[in-house]
Amino acid sequence: MQWETVIGLEVHVQLATRSKIFSGASTAFGAEPNTQACAVDLGLPGVLPVLNEQAVAMAVQFGLAVHAEIPEVSVFDRKNYFYPDLPKGYQTSQMYHPIVGPGEVEITLDDNTTKRIRIHHAHLEEDAGKSLHEDFHGMTGIDLNRAGTPLLEIVSEPDMRNAKEAAAYLKAIHSIVTYLGISDGNMAEGSMRCDVNVSVRPKGQEAFGTRAEIKNVNSFRFVERAIAFEVERQIELIEDGGKVVQETRLFDPERDETRSMRTKEEANDYRYFPCPDLLPVVLDQAYLDHLRSQLPELPADKRARFQTSLGLSAYDAHVLSASREMAEFFEEVHRVCGDAKQAANWVQGELSGALNRDNLTIQNSPVSAHQLGELISRVLDDTINGKAAKQVFQALWNGQGSSADEIIEAKGLKQVTDTGAIESMIDQVIAESPAQVAQYRDSEPEKRGKMIGYFVGQVMKASRGTANPQQVNGLLKEKLDALL
Amino acid sequence: MALEESHVRRAAHLARLAVSDDQANGFVDDLSRILDMVDQLQSLDTEGVAPLAHPLDATQRLRADEVTETNQRDAFQRCAPAVENGLYLVPRVVE
């Protein structure tokens, strides 16, 4: 039987506020345990939550970025369950009236086509603390620093049909929240976490199959692996006459499998009700308009503009717009050198290669966008050739000069375009290579084109890479053919 | 709606309340009467009435995103039964 996979994602994004969603405790990562957990976060008696205006603004910015409806009124509810890292006994969340209504996100697939994934809603809630299960004399250690950190939970519709689409969706969300600056998107530190709902159904069937929810899927790569495993598990189960049960499963990246955590019917009775400590949040149109006016250009718009007004390929436009830092770097390079295609090639080629090699992010690039732009300008105005440009790039990378011009001057890399100078170098090379000249003369005319490479190499070497390669080629051919 | 003892047991379990058999029977009656009152409320025609999320006719005030709390871990942990390395210790929880 042919099976179809149906995937929906719940993405939890930690918002980059300075303080917590309902208290004035710091959200900074990596502090000593429990030094950033105040009376409100601990759920001590008599405390009252007060909502952080920045968390509201960030949630709304996300909503506007995914073209969502933003309801005038949203309401906080209590989600009741017991766990030691949730000291209040409930998580303050939004069940019935979330701050962000239905919207949509455009994802880019491997073949550079795009697909729209609908967003069901996004709601604000608080993060829980962390349980440390290392052995504390048979007890569990609790760090509540994370408790109360604002989260935006973004719930998609079940619109994805394979693991690659799910990964592309997660990347699109990552790209939007980092463009907006509402989260650092750091998956390794847990700033962005993902639960995946997966089900399978016979191809052509409209009704959804029973889904399993996979937790702990915390990297782009794991999303694909967890889904691949889970889809196979469900198909095998059904084909062997079994039934998928609705349950929560945990992804174990080390063993590359998902494991049952608990069946939903037992534990999940959260008895939601409106939180009496918090009043309804009311947002007026002027506020929404103000936030809308502050939105930066978003990845999808940038990608479109890179293609239509800069003439970049779909692939280049996608890669260069994927992160805000990459896009800003590219745009500065382009602004300085004026040639979008060259700027794209250098950023994706020489620069990305060097960043990967030295394991650096583009924010930490030793070569600034301005320096790279100037370097490309010198290639465009024929001051240096492509080979010398790579040398200049390396020198800039190694901090051997503050600008391309300075390095070109210091290393004498200025391209030699003076015909007389090139001709005298060619004469010398020909005079010193009688054997190769004889070989050239004696070979078939169609093979000579290849043999000329040797002479070009020698002349370039003699010029220390500074001769204009096209000129060398042309002049060499003339001179060698004159010897025939 | 008529409650049964099993409902009371389940609600008590979810709320982590220890309830004796005698108490459970008493709660069946008490809680059933509360649900009867809810049924009475439900019989009202609320067509066109917006759901009430809060009894106060006010909207949420927001606070500026500023860190105003200082580290008071030592004070908070004085009333905790067990702490170590700055962590609160609780009976082992394993999923």
TrEMBL record, chain A:
UniProt entry keywords in alphabetical sequence: ATP-binding, Ligase, Nucleotide-binding, Protein biosynthesis, Transferase
Catalytic activity, EC: 6.3.5.-
PROSITE patterns per UniProt: GATB
MF terms in GO: ATP binding; glutaminyl-tRNA synthase (glutamine-hydrolyzing) activity; transferase activity
Domain Asn/Gln amidotransferase: 328-480
One Pfam entry name: GatB_Yqey
SUPFAM superfamilies in UniProt: GatB/YqeY motif, Glutamine synthetase/guanido kinase
Principal EC category: ligase
InterPro entries to which the protein is assigned, alphabetical: Asn/Gln-tRNA_amidoTrfase_suB/E, Asn/Gln-tRNA_Trfase_suB/E_cat, Asn/Gln_amidotransferase, Asn/Gln_tRNA_amidoTrase-B-like, GatB, GatB_C_1, GatB_Yqey_C_2, Gln-tRNA_amidoTrfase_suB_CS
Keyword Ligase listed: yes
Record-level GO BP terms: glutaminyl-tRNAGln biosynthesis via transamidation; translation
Reaction catalysed by this enzyme: L-aspartyl-tRNA(Asn) + L-glutamine + ATP + H2O = L-asparaginyl-tRNA(Asn) + L-glutamate + ADP + phosphate + 2 H(+); L-glutamyl-tRNA(Gln) + L-glutamine + ATP + H2O = L-glutaminyl-tRNA(Gln) + L-glutamate + ADP + phosphate + H(+)
Assembly and binders: Heterotrimer of A, B and C subunits.
Family: Belongs to the GatB/GatE family. GatB subfamily.
Function, in words: Allows the formation of correctly charged Asn-tRNA(Asn) or Gln-tRNA(Gln) through the transamidation of misacylated Asp-tRNA(Asn) or Glu-tRNA(Gln) in organisms which lack either or both of asparaginyl-tRNA or glutaminyl-tRNA synthetases. The reaction takes place in the presence of glutamine and ATP through an activated phospho-Asp-tRNA(Asn) or phospho-Glu-tRNA(Gln).
The protein's name in its UniProt record: Aspartyl/glutamyl-tRNA(Asn/Gln) amidotransferase subunit B
Species: Vreelandella alkaliphila
Automatic annotation (TrEMBL), chain B:
Family matches, as InterPro entries: Asp/Glu-ADT_sf_sub_c, GatC
Record bears the keyword Nucleotide-binding: yes
Gene Ontology biological process terms from the UniProt entry: glutaminyl-tRNAGln biosynthesis via transamidation; regulation of translational fidelity; translation
Matching Gene3D superfamilies: Glu-tRNAGln amidotransferase C subunit, N-terminal domain
Top-level taxon of the source organism: Bacteria
Alphabetized GO MF terms: ATP binding; glutaminyl-tRNA synthase (glutamine-hydrolyzing) activity; transferase activity
Catalytic activity as recorded in UniProt: L-glutamyl-tRNA(Gln) + L-glutamine + ATP + H2O = L-glutaminyl-tRNA(Gln) + L-glutamate + ADP + phosphate + H(+); L-aspartyl-tRNA(Asn) + L-glutamine + ATP + H2O = L-asparaginyl-tRNA(Asn) + L-glutamate + ADP + phosphate + 2 H(+)
Pfam families according to UniProt: GatC
Sorted UniProt keywords: ATP-binding, Ligase, Nucleotide-binding, Protein biosynthesis, Transferase
EC number: 6.3.5.-
Family, per entry: Belongs to the GatC family.
Function: Allows the formation of correctly charged Asn-tRNA(Asn) or Gln-tRNA(Gln) through the transamidation of misacylated Asp-tRNA(Asn) or Glu-tRNA(Gln) in organisms which lack either or both of asparaginyl-tRNA or glutaminyl-tRNA synthetases. The reaction takes place in the presence of glutamine and ATP through an activated phospho-Asp-tRNA(Asn) or phospho-Glu-tRNA(Gln).
Subunit record text: Heterotrimer of A, B and C subunits.
Protein name: Aspartyl/glutamyl-tRNA(Asn/Gln) amidotransferase subunit C
Species in which this protein is naturally found: Vreelandella alkaliphila
